[in-house]
Amino acid sequence: MGTESIVVSGVTKRFTMQYHRTLKQITIAALRRQPLGETFLAVDDVSFTVRQGEAIGLMGLNGSGKSTLLKLISGVMQPDGGTVRTRGRVAGLIAAGAGFHPQLTGRDNVYLNAAILGMSEAETKRKFDQIIDFAAVGKFLDTPTGHYSSGMSARLGFAVAAFAESDIFLADEVLAVGDQPFKKKCLQRMAEIKAEGRTLFYVSHSPGSVRRMCDRALVLESGRLGFDGPVDEGIHYLKYDASDSRPEDDEIGADI
Amino acid sequence: MTTTQAAHPDRVPDEPLVAPGDHGGLHNVFRERYLLRLLVKKELQARYQGSFLGLVWSYVQPLVRFLAYYLVVGYVLGLNRGVQNFPLHIFAGMVMVHYFTETFSAGTRSIVRNGGLIQKLSMPREMFPVASMLVSGYHTLPQLGILLVAVLITGWDPTLADVGAGLLGFAIIATFGMALALLFSAANVFFRDFHNIVQTVGIFVTWSAPMIYPYDRIADLVGGTWIEQVYLANPIANGVLLFQQLFWIPTTDPDTTPIPLMPDHLLTRGLIVLAACLVILAFSQWVFSRLEGKFAERL
């Protein structure tokens, strides 16, 4: 058996932008010979292989297809062309926010989320205190998550994913919503995840944290894989190193 | 800085490479029983969120509906005189029709309502309509309890075949409701019109089964014609008749007028209809798995 953890080959994902949704709109547009919709490639013929335990920094400008690629790897979306294959359990946080049910309390959401990530009831109970400790939601644990602030919600979501048993950990702009102390905690936790030999797939706009965390960089440009190689060269490729970013921003990131 | 040396071959999970998000459909839903239980619990909480009376509404709505049917149809239209134990006839049918419409309508909305989870996490999406069906079943239990008390008070002497008929009727309604919920929940992601269709179908369903009128009305009107065959092929009508075979027929006296009438070969018809419902369920699952790859982007 090989040591590949993620194998992406020739993957394409096409999105359709619909201009018209109702029958009336569609009819009128058709009569006027206007286009009914337009498709574009969010991910365009991307191929790469990740071995177990590698830490990948996925970079690229907004709208370059990073989150879509993550959704394809996590199985939330299916590719239109090519194949994605993964080995073992996948956990993570996609598009800076957890899949929470706003009407359920933080506690119930932790159990539900953990179950979806493949954890049993006993496993969740064992890790529950760690998760709550990390997320630091305090007295809001038994409040519906709909009332949470975006930061609080992201903290809890990250905590569940970070303490779930997984072989692949996906982190999508996790640092974008947290405050400074939480960002530090996240980076620390991701370093632990990496040290445990799990595959880390980290999306970030912050060159400092990618440099610190990752062994390899992938850069997406309008859906195409523009660069695959050493982190420093990847950052240079994106011209993120030439910027006038202040040094203190560099480390934990102007994660916007 | 050197790269790509950090692989951990010692931690490679002892599993093959698989396509993520391929959960293998309906039968795998019942393997993940713990997750299903959590979803059912969540749905139970969500359905009466912020409501003061909560589960009591599960009794109030059927009760009001029952009274309306019974008073209007039984007394105003006078059907009460034409059917033995008419209240039981209505109520047995209503339990099944209500179970079906609840499964169908809640199931159809289930995927869209759980969009937040579906867009972020990968799981068998069939979970949601299945959970809706189980929750609707849970809400049917109090009604079944009331029905049971009512038949026992009236005097109830079912045979083993009657019990079989009742179970068969229930299986038909559950399978048919599940099949439509699966199909429409997927379709509803693409066009939200579908949950309006469901409401329209719900109205039709109430009148398509012998609930507020007895079967002998149908036999009088179209007995022996192909229309009767079509009527009996409807899974709702079929399921309701089978259910009444358990909860209504054993309370009646076959020798007094009005003589209760049931279609011939009821059990055989039921088995055929159940087989057809299973085929429809398989078809719905096939359509669902075709469409589910697009859920995350269309929600």
UniProtKB/TrEMBL annotation, chain A:
Q: Which InterPro entries match?
A: AAA+_ATPase, ABC_transporter-like_ATP-bd, ABC_transporter-like_CS, ABC_transpr_TagH-like, Bact_Polysacc_Export_ATP-bd, P-loop_NTPase
The ABC transporter domain, residue ranges:
26-247
Q: Which GO terms describe its molecular function?
A: ABC-type transporter activity; ATP binding; ATP hydrolysis activity
Gene Ontology cellular-component terms listed = membrane
Q: Which residues form the signal peptide?
A: none
Q: Return the PROSITE patterns for the record.
A: ABC_TRANSPORTER_1 (PS00211), ABC_TRANSPORTER_2 (PS50893)
- Alphabetically list the UniProt keywords: ATP-binding, Nucleotide-binding, Transport
Q: Which family does it belong to?
A: Belongs to the ABC transporter superfamily.
Name it. ABC transporter
Q: Which species expresses this protein natively?
A: uncultured Nocardioidaceae bacterium
Automatic annotation (TrEMBL), chain B:
The record places domain ABC-2 type transporter transmembrane at 35-244
Keywords in UniProt for this one?
Cell membrane, Membrane, Transmembrane, Transmembrane helix, Transport
One of the GO BP terms on file: lipopolysaccharide transport
Subcellular location(s): the record lists:
Cell membrane
Pfam families per the record?
A: ABC2_membrane
Domain of life the protein comes from: Bacteria
Q: Can you list the GO cellular component terms from the UniProt entry?
A: plasma membrane
Q: Name one GO molecular function term.
A: ABC-type transporter activity
Q: Where are the transmembrane segments?
A: 52-76, 88-107, 128-153, 165-190, 197-215, 266-288
**Membrane topology reported for the UniProt record:** Multi-pass membrane protein
Q: Where does the record place a coiled coil?
A: none
Entry's family note: Belongs to the ABC-2 integral membrane protein family.
Note the PANTHER family from the entry: CAPSULE POLYSACCHARIDE EXPORT INNER-MEMBRANE PROTEIN CTRC (PTHR30413:SF10), INNER MEMBRANE TRANSPORT PERMEASE (PTHR30413)
Q: Could you tell me what this protein is called?
A: O-antigen export system permease protein RfbD
Lineage, highest ranks first: Bacteria, Bacillati, Actinomycetota, Actinomycetes, Propionibacteriales
